[in-house]
Amino acid sequence: DTLCPDSVVIVNGQRYDKSKPTGLEVLTSSSAFGCDSIVRVDLVFRDLEVNLGEDRQISAGDSLCLQPVLNFQPALLEWEPPLPCQDLSCFPTCQVYFSDSAFTLSVTDSSGCVVQDMIQIAVDKTPPVYVPNVFNPDAPWPNNHFFLSAGAGIKQIRQFRIATRWGEIVLEKQNIQPGKPEDGWDGFWKGKNAAPGVYIFWAETEWWDGTSDIISGSFTLLR
């Protein structure tokens, strides 16, 4: 018979499986006349594979899609923990993650063989914030604005300020969304082109769980 991939056969006290399918075993004094017998072991296994991909690391609030890859037609899919839909037609299935997760998929073929794979998803609970270190108001849109971008785990920017090196505020906004150039600075101050040089920014970001953090730094305005 062709065996399931996880099948194990014990011959003369020795274990034979997919990693060791062949061998010779001497059965001492096993015949009625006390003679030895030689048994040749040659096992054949079904070629069944299921692959959920490599383990992943993502930022809190990011989306990840699960797409099982099989080399056979499954008779049954079982997920642990269960997913809303078990049928292959439901995949890829995507969702947003805010905490570490792990999924195990057990697939049964028409002969009753079961193969498994697992994927672990590690979630970095500190969403990234992307800040340019230079910008040019004369550049094409959207690079002609200084603005903050962030991972999906950042809900909003509660406070956003930009100042000169001497502390003069050139921009101040509240409750804006990251990734929107129109909410950033266009390089104008008091109705005129701001002078090239180094400027300071300060922002209070609100995370996915309601907590906040302060980020600050400097950037250069070029013309």
Describe the structure.
It is a single chain. By secondary structure, the protein is mostly beta strands. The chain has no helices and 23 strands. The strands form 9 sheets. Strands 16-23-22-18-19 form a 5-stranded mixed sheet, with no helix packed on it. It has a 4-stranded mixed sheet with strand order 8-14-13-11, with no helix packed on it. Strands 1-6 form a two-stranded parallel ribbon. It is rod-shaped, with a radius of gyration of 31 Å. The mean pLDDT is 92.
Describe this structure in a few short sentences.
This protein is mostly beta strands and 223 residues long. It is 0% helix and 50% strand. β13 and β14 (114-124) form a beta hairpin.
Order of helices and strands: EEEEEEEEEEEEEEEEEEEEEEE
Cα-atom radius of gyration: 31 Å
Distance between the termini: 77 Å
Shape verdict: rod-shaped
- Number of separate helices: 0
User: How would you classify the helix and strand content by structural class?
Assistant: mainly beta
Q: How would you state the average pLDDT, rounded?
A: 92
User: Biggest sheet, strands in spatial order?
Assistant: 16-23-22-18-19
As a percent range, the share of helical residues equals under 10%
Spell out the blueprint of helices and strands.
Blueprint: E1 2-3, E2 9-11, E3 14-16, E4 22-27, E5 37-42, E6 44-45, E7 50-51, E8 56-59, E9 63-66, E10 69-70, E11 76-80, E12 93-96, E13 101-108, E14 114-124, E15 129-130, E16 134-135, E17 149-150, E18 154-164, E19 169-176, E20 188-189, E21 192-193, E22 197-207, E23 212-221
